[in-house]
Amino acid sequence: MPFSIATWNINSVRLRMPIVERLLVEHAPDVLCLQETKVPDELFPEKAFRKLGYEHIAFHGQKGYHGVATVARRPIEVVERRRFCEIEDSRHLSVTVRAGGKTILLHNFYVPAGGDEPDPAVNVKFAHKLAFLDELHAMEKLRPRSGERAILVGDLNVAPLEHDVWSHKQMLKVVSHTPVECEKLNAARNAGGWIDSMRVHTPEPEKLYTWWSYRAMDNWKAADRGRRLDHVWTSNALADRISAIKIAKDYRGAARPSDHVPVTATVEI
DNA sequence: ATGGTTGCTTGGCAA
Protein backbone atom coordinates (compact mmCIF):
# COMPACT_ATOMS: atom_id res chain seq x y z
CA MET A 1 0.00 0.00 0.00
CA PRO A 2 1.23 3.54 -0.69
CA PHE A 3 2.35 5.71 2.19
CA SER A 4 3.18 9.36 1.56
CA ILE A 5 5.25 11.83 3.52
CA ALA A 6 5.70 15.53 2.80
CA THR A 7 8.36 17.90 4.13
CA TRP A 8 8.09 21.69 4.09
CA ASN A 9 9.93 24.60 5.67
CA ILE A 10 6.86 26.73 6.27
CA ASN A 11 8.50 29.86 7.78
CA SER A 12 5.75 30.46 10.39
CA VAL A 13 3.00 27.85 10.45
CA ARG A 14 0.39 30.23 11.89
CA LEU A 15 0.88 32.82 9.18
CA ARG A 16 0.71 30.22 6.43
CA MET A 17 -2.18 28.00 7.49
CA PRO A 18 -4.08 28.84 4.27
CA ILE A 19 -1.40 27.28 2.06
CA VAL A 20 -0.81 24.43 4.51
CA GLU A 21 -4.51 23.61 4.25
CA ARG A 22 -4.23 23.73 0.47
CA LEU A 23 -1.39 21.19 0.55
CA LEU A 24 -3.29 18.86 2.86
CA VAL A 25 -6.37 19.01 0.63
CA GLU A 26 -4.58 18.82 -2.73
CA HIS A 27 -1.80 16.36 -1.88
CA ALA A 28 -3.24 14.65 1.23
CA PRO A 29 0.05 13.16 2.45
CA ASP A 30 -0.27 10.63 5.26
CA VAL A 31 2.32 12.61 7.21
CA LEU A 32 3.54 16.21 6.93
CA CYS A 33 6.83 17.28 8.51
CA LEU A 34 7.14 21.03 9.00
CA GLN A 35 10.19 23.15 9.82
CA GLU A 36 10.52 26.74 11.00
CA THR A 37 7.09 26.66 12.59
CA LYS A 38 8.10 29.64 14.77
CA VAL A 39 5.52 28.83 17.40
CA PRO A 40 5.71 27.61 21.01
CA ASP A 41 3.98 24.26 21.56
CA GLU A 42 1.09 25.78 23.53
CA LEU A 43 0.18 28.04 20.60
CA PHE A 44 0.45 25.43 17.81
CA PRO A 45 -2.67 25.65 15.59
CA GLU A 46 -3.84 22.11 16.36
CA LYS A 47 -7.52 22.73 15.65
CA ALA A 48 -6.96 23.68 12.03
CA PHE A 49 -5.04 20.45 11.43
CA ARG A 50 -7.63 18.34 13.23
CA LYS A 51 -10.40 19.82 11.13
CA LEU A 52 -8.59 18.55 8.01
CA GLY A 53 -8.26 15.04 9.40
CA TYR A 54 -4.72 15.42 10.71
CA GLU A 55 -5.55 14.52 14.27
CA HIS A 56 -2.17 13.21 15.33
CA ILE A 57 0.26 16.01 16.05
CA ALA A 58 3.73 16.11 17.53
CA PHE A 59 5.71 19.29 17.95
CA HIS A 60 8.99 20.61 19.20
CA GLY A 61 8.68 24.35 19.06
CA GLN A 62 9.97 27.52 20.65
CA LYS A 63 9.06 31.19 20.56
CA GLY A 64 10.01 33.16 17.47
CA TYR A 65 12.61 30.91 15.88
CA HIS A 66 13.09 27.40 14.49
CA GLY A 67 10.62 24.73 15.53
CA VAL A 68 9.57 21.44 13.90
CA ALA A 69 6.25 19.61 13.87
CA THR A 70 5.00 16.33 12.45
CA VAL A 71 1.28 15.95 11.75
CA ALA A 72 -0.45 12.79 10.56
CA ARG A 73 -3.76 11.23 9.60
CA ARG A 74 -2.86 8.11 11.54
CA PRO A 75 -1.42 7.59 15.02
CA ILE A 76 2.21 8.55 15.59
CA GLU A 77 4.38 8.02 18.62
CA VAL A 78 7.07 10.48 19.60
CA VAL A 79 10.47 8.84 19.86
CA GLU A 80 12.72 11.79 20.58
CA ARG A 81 13.17 15.54 20.50
CA ARG A 82 16.93 15.73 20.28
CA ARG A 83 19.06 18.67 21.27
CA PHE A 84 22.18 19.32 19.18
CA CYS A 85 25.40 21.16 20.01
CA GLU A 86 24.14 21.56 23.59
CA ILE A 87 21.96 24.43 22.36
CA GLU A 88 18.27 24.56 23.24
CA ASP A 89 17.07 25.06 19.66
CA SER A 90 14.05 23.12 18.38
CA ARG A 91 15.57 21.40 15.36
CA HIS A 92 14.70 17.72 15.56
CA LEU A 93 11.71 15.48 16.17
CA SER A 94 11.42 11.75 15.52
CA VAL A 95 8.25 9.69 15.55
CA THR A 96 7.11 6.24 14.50
CA VAL A 97 4.08 5.56 12.34
CA ARG A 98 2.39 2.33 11.25
CA ALA A 99 1.77 1.71 7.55
CA GLY A 100 0.88 -1.53 5.78
CA GLY A 101 1.32 -3.42 9.02
CA LYS A 102 4.90 -2.12 9.36
CA THR A 103 6.50 0.45 11.63
CA ILE A 104 8.41 3.33 10.02
CA LEU A 105 10.71 5.69 11.91
CA LEU A 106 10.46 9.30 10.70
CA HIS A 107 13.08 11.93 11.47
CA ASN A 108 12.21 15.60 10.95
CA PHE A 109 15.26 17.92 10.88
CA TYR A 110 15.94 21.63 10.64
CA VAL A 111 19.69 22.16 10.20
CA PRO A 112 21.03 25.66 11.09
CA ALA A 113 21.22 27.99 8.07
CA GLY A 114 24.68 29.19 9.02
CA GLY A 115 24.54 32.93 8.38
CA ASP A 116 26.15 34.65 5.41
CA GLU A 117 29.91 34.51 5.97
CA PRO A 118 31.36 31.07 5.12
CA ASP A 119 34.20 31.24 7.64
CA PRO A 120 33.69 29.48 10.98
CA ALA A 121 36.49 31.56 12.54
CA VAL A 122 34.54 34.81 12.17
CA ASN A 123 30.94 33.55 11.90
CA VAL A 124 29.67 31.61 14.91
CA LYS A 125 26.49 30.67 13.02
CA PHE A 126 28.52 28.90 10.34
CA ALA A 127 30.64 27.22 13.05
CA HIS A 128 27.39 26.02 14.65
CA LYS A 129 26.16 24.63 11.33
CA LEU A 130 29.39 22.67 10.81
CA ALA A 131 29.29 21.36 14.39
CA PHE A 132 25.67 20.32 13.89
CA LEU A 133 26.62 18.36 10.74
CA ASP A 134 29.53 16.73 12.59
CA GLU A 135 27.17 15.70 15.39
CA LEU A 136 24.75 14.27 12.83
CA HIS A 137 27.65 12.29 11.36
CA ALA A 138 28.75 10.93 14.71
CA MET A 139 25.27 9.98 15.89
CA GLU A 140 25.23 6.18 16.05
CA LYS A 141 21.61 6.17 17.15
CA LEU A 142 20.55 7.87 13.93
CA ARG A 143 21.90 5.11 11.71
CA PRO A 144 19.21 2.70 10.50
CA ARG A 145 19.76 -0.90 11.52
CA SER A 146 19.82 -3.59 8.85
CA GLY A 147 16.29 -3.99 7.48
CA GLU A 148 14.92 -1.04 9.46
CA ARG A 149 12.33 1.13 7.73
CA ALA A 150 13.33 4.75 8.30
CA ILE A 151 12.94 8.08 6.52
CA LEU A 152 14.81 11.29 7.31
CA VAL A 153 13.36 14.51 5.92
CA GLY A 154 13.75 18.20 6.46
CA ASP A 155 15.39 21.47 5.67
CA LEU A 156 19.04 20.43 5.81
CA ASN A 157 20.11 23.88 4.55
CA VAL A 158 22.80 22.38 2.29
CA ALA A 159 22.58 21.90 -1.48
CA PRO A 160 25.26 19.21 -1.72
CA LEU A 161 25.53 18.43 -5.44
CA GLU A 162 26.64 20.50 -8.42
CA HIS A 163 23.15 20.54 -9.91
CA ASP A 164 21.43 21.27 -6.60
CA VAL A 165 22.16 24.96 -7.27
CA TRP A 166 21.59 27.21 -10.25
CA SER A 167 25.32 27.93 -10.62
CA HIS A 168 27.86 25.64 -8.98
CA LYS A 169 30.72 27.99 -9.78
CA GLN A 170 29.02 31.11 -8.43
CA MET A 171 27.85 29.33 -5.29
CA LEU A 172 31.14 27.84 -4.10
CA LYS A 173 31.62 30.59 -1.51
CA VAL A 174 27.94 30.97 -0.67
CA VAL A 175 26.74 29.34 2.55
CA SER A 176 24.62 26.28 1.65
CA HIS A 177 26.97 25.14 -1.15
CA THR A 178 30.51 25.59 0.21
CA PRO A 179 32.66 22.45 -0.21
CA VAL A 180 33.12 22.00 3.54
CA GLU A 181 29.40 21.78 4.34
CA CYS A 182 28.59 19.72 1.23
CA GLU A 183 31.26 17.21 2.25
CA LYS A 184 29.99 17.10 5.82
CA LEU A 185 26.40 16.52 4.76
CA ASN A 186 27.41 13.77 2.32
CA ALA A 187 29.64 12.17 4.96
CA ALA A 188 26.80 12.17 7.50
CA ARG A 189 24.44 10.59 4.97
CA ASN A 190 26.98 7.94 3.97
CA ALA A 191 27.82 7.13 7.60
CA GLY A 192 24.18 6.34 8.22
CA GLY A 193 23.77 4.39 4.99
CA TRP A 194 20.99 6.80 4.02
CA ILE A 195 19.85 7.04 0.40
CA ASP A 196 19.28 10.45 -1.24
CA SER A 197 15.95 9.42 -2.72
CA MET A 198 15.34 12.67 -4.62
CA ARG A 199 18.52 12.03 -6.61
CA VAL A 200 17.73 8.34 -7.13
CA HIS A 201 14.46 9.47 -8.65
CA THR A 202 16.01 12.39 -10.60
CA PRO A 203 19.75 11.87 -11.16
CA GLU A 204 22.18 14.65 -12.02
CA PRO A 205 22.69 16.61 -14.20
CA GLU A 206 19.01 17.52 -14.02
CA LYS A 207 18.56 20.57 -11.80
CA LEU A 208 16.52 20.15 -8.62
CA TYR A 209 15.51 23.06 -6.40
CA THR A 210 13.24 23.35 -3.36
CA TRP A 211 14.01 26.95 -2.34
CA TRP A 212 14.06 30.34 -4.06
CA SER A 213 15.27 33.40 -2.13
CA TYR A 214 12.94 36.15 -0.97
CA ARG A 215 15.76 38.61 -1.54
CA ALA A 216 16.00 38.28 -5.28
CA MET A 217 14.65 41.34 -7.01
CA ASP A 218 14.09 39.51 -10.28
CA ASN A 219 11.17 37.23 -10.94
CA TRP A 220 11.92 34.05 -8.99
CA LYS A 221 10.33 31.82 -11.58
CA ALA A 222 11.92 33.41 -14.66
CA ALA A 223 15.39 33.68 -13.08
CA ASP A 224 15.03 30.26 -11.41
CA ARG A 225 18.05 30.77 -9.17
CA GLY A 226 17.06 28.01 -6.77
CA ARG A 227 18.77 25.61 -4.42
CA ARG A 228 17.90 22.10 -3.19
CA LEU A 229 17.94 22.66 0.57
CA ASP A 230 15.18 20.19 1.49
CA HIS A 231 15.81 16.47 1.43
CA VAL A 232 14.23 13.04 1.69
CA TRP A 233 16.58 10.26 2.77
CA THR A 234 15.52 6.66 3.18
CA SER A 235 17.09 3.67 4.85
CA ASN A 236 18.31 0.89 2.58
CA ALA A 237 15.23 -1.17 3.37
CA LEU A 238 13.03 1.48 1.72
CA ALA A 239 15.42 2.58 -1.03
CA ASP A 240 13.70 0.76 -3.87
CA ARG A 241 10.20 1.35 -2.48
CA ILE A 242 9.92 5.01 -3.45
CA SER A 243 7.38 5.17 -6.26
CA ALA A 244 7.16 8.96 -6.61
CA ILE A 245 8.78 12.19 -5.46
CA LYS A 246 7.10 15.48 -6.18
CA ILE A 247 8.51 18.97 -5.65
CA ALA A 248 5.44 21.21 -5.50
CA LYS A 249 7.09 24.23 -7.12
CA ASP A 250 3.79 26.04 -7.65
CA TYR A 251 3.58 26.76 -3.90
CA ARG A 252 6.43 29.27 -4.31
CA GLY A 253 4.01 31.35 -6.37
CA ALA A 254 1.21 31.26 -3.80
CA ALA A 255 0.00 34.36 -1.99
CA ARG A 256 2.41 35.06 0.88
CA PRO A 257 4.58 32.04 0.10
CA SER A 258 7.28 30.35 2.12
CA ASP A 259 10.66 30.58 0.41
CA HIS A 260 10.68 26.75 0.45
CA VAL A 261 8.23 24.46 -1.35
CA PRO A 262 6.84 21.10 -0.19
CA VAL A 263 8.47 17.84 -1.25
CA THR A 264 6.29 14.73 -1.14
CA ALA A 265 7.56 11.15 -1.34
CA THR A 266 5.38 8.10 -1.87
CA VAL A 267 6.59 4.80 -0.44
CA GLU A 268 5.14 1.41 -1.33
CA ILE A 269 5.03 -0.40 1.96
C1' DA B 1 26.96 45.83 -6.26
C1' DT B 2 28.25 43.51 0.73
C1' DG B 3 22.45 45.03 -1.78
C1' DG B 4 18.02 42.60 -1.49
C1' DT B 5 12.85 40.44 1.39
C1' DT B 6 10.42 38.29 5.07
C1' DG B 7 8.85 37.11 9.95
C1' DC B 8 8.72 37.90 14.71
C1' DT B 9 8.24 41.80 17.11
C1' DT B 10 8.69 47.35 17.60
C1' DG B 11 14.73 47.13 17.45
C1' DG B 12 17.26 44.05 15.57
C1' DC B 13 18.09 39.54 14.61
C1' DA B 14 17.77 35.31 11.81
C1' DA B 15 16.98 33.36 7.56
Report on the architecture of this protein:
With 269 residues, this protein is α+β, with helices and mostly antiparallel strands. It has helices at 17-26, 46-51, 124-138, 168-171, 179-192, 197-201, 220-223, and strands at 2-9, 31-35, 56-60, 68-72, 76-80, 92-99, 102-110, 150-155, 195-196, 211-212, 226-227, 230-234, 242-247, 263-268. It has a single domain (2-268), classed as Endonuclease/exonuclease/phosphatase (Deoxyribonuclease I, Chain A), CATH 3.60.10. The protein is built from seven helices and 14 strands. The strands form three sheets. A six-stranded mixed sheet has the order 3-4-2-1-14-13. α3 packs parallel to α5. The longest helix has 15 residues, at 124-138. 43% of the residues are buried. The mean pLDDT is 97.
Descriptive tags:
269 residues, alpha+beta, Deoxyribonuclease I, Chain A, six-stranded mixed sheet, 14 strands, globular, DNA-binding
